[in-house]
Amino acid sequence: MHVSNNHERTLTELDHTRLVKLTRQLRSGTAQHETDDIEDALEMARLVPSRSVSPDIVTMYSQVRLQDSFSGSRYQLTLCYPSDAEPSAGFVSVTSPVGASLLGLSVGATARWVTPSGESRAAEVLAVLFQPEASGDYTL
């Protein structure tokens, strides 16, 4: 289940460090399958200091507005770590296919992923409604 997109990914150095640590923990545990998509995202990323990340980049705990490329419906998601995931409330884990596909994208980019059931999905990032770094929180 590999993610793909047509845009470069930008990650903060802090997010990258934490996500590398997370993937190592998952790889050594029972959730090894959860790391493939996020490892692909980490490999493709350009790293920047937290204070330098553009406010239109999807970072950890960013809330984004998306538009489904097939149905046109719009929805909001917050990208989070697995321990905070609550999909029914719009909190999606970075280790999920949709979460990994969003990480590091900018407004205007299209995220593409394959669902666990094998369905291809895509959504355009319309807006970053909240980004911790843009609000001055460089430690979240």
Automatic annotation (TrEMBL):
InterPro entries: GreA/GreB_C_sf, Tscrpt_elong_fac_GreA/B_C, Tscrpt_elong_fac_GreA/B_fam. GO terms for biological process: DNA-templated transcription elongation; regulation of DNA-templated transcription elongation. It comes from the Bacteria. GO terms for molecular function: DNA binding; kinase activity; RNA polymerase binding. Residues 55-128 form the Transcription elongation factor GreA/GreB C-terminal domain. SUPFAM superfamilies: FKBP-like (SSF54534). Keywords: Kinase, Transferase. The keyword Kinase applies. This is Regulator of nucleoside diphosphate kinase. It comes from Roseateles toxinivorans.
